[in-house]
Amino acid sequence: MLTQIDFLDVVRLTPLVAIDLIVSDAEGRVLIGHRRNRPARGTWFVPGGRILKDETLDAAFTRIADAELGIAKLARSAARFEGAFEHHYSDNFAAEPGVSTHYVVLAYALSSGSTQSIGRLDQHSDYLWLTPAELLAHPDVHENTKAYFR
User: Fold this and answer.
1) Domain range spanning residue 39?
2) What NCBIfam families does this protein map onto (predicted)?
3) Beta-sheet pairing, 44-45 with 48-50
4) pLDDT at 107 over 80
5) SS3 state of residue 66
6) Which residues on neighbouring strands pair with residue 107, listed in sequence order?
7) 15-27 average pLDDT score
8) Which residues are part of a known binding site?
9) Domain harbouring 70, CATH code
10) Does residue 7 fall inside a structural domain?
11) 84, 82, 83, 46: which is closest to 65 by C-alpha?
12) Does some domain include residue 98?
């Protein structure tokens, strides 16, 4: 496990690789969470997380789905790959001045049968289900999330 100082060096020097989860319900609404963490703290964003060193894509997907959504043992094969996206942020997890964050994000879409128990409040302070049109019109939804629907 990296120390915070070592991880800050990684963020300063390299892009991070992450998985975003575009979860929709039976009505076509999309799950977004109000971010607690930097970067993009205080904005609405689809759930997701970074891939760890030596972690396979399948293992990362399953871990992120559990950590972000509270869905255990979800297989990546249950989702549809939507493509690779780049996310650039002027800040970083440590709020260290002058250190930006660059993600290469693999976006996966999946459907949820239940909207009742999805989401983990340790990751996001609140959750919303919005149609793509509502999401695109919402001023506090982050541009990187809106890019999935343009």
Assistant:
1) 13-149
2) PRK15434.1
3) unpaired
4) yes
5) helix
6) 20, 83
7) 96
8) 48, 68, 123
9) 3.90.79.10
10) no
11) 46
12) yes
Q: Which residue has the tokens 């559990």?
A: 66
Q: Would residue 34 be called left, alpha or beta, if left means φ above 0 and alpha means ψ between -120 and 50 degrees?
A: beta
- Please check whether residue 30 lies inside any domain of the structure: yes
Position 115 pLDDT exceeds 60: no
| pLDDT tens, residue by residue, 118-137 | 766 667 788 999 999 999 99
Q: What is the CA 129 to chain-centroid distance, rounded?
A: 15
Asked if the structure places residue 64 within a domain, the reply is: yes
Total domains in the chain come to 1
pLDDT of residue 121: 65
Q: Looking at residue 34, what DSSP letter applies?
A: E
Residue 52: exposure state from Cβ atoms within 10 A (0-12, 13-18, ≥19): middle
- Write the pLDDT tens digit of every residue in 28-38: 999 999 998 99
The residues, ordered by sequence, that sit 6+ positions from 56 with a Cβ below 8 Å of its Cβ are none
Give the bridge partners for 56, in sequence order.
Answer: none
- Give CA–CA dist 86/143, Å, rounded: 11
Nearest-5° Cα angle at 62, 144 to 17:
40
Query: What pTM was estimated for this model as a whole?
Result: 0.92
Binding residues for Mg(2+): 48, 68, 123
Q: How many CA atoms lie within 13 A of 22 on its CB side?
A: 22
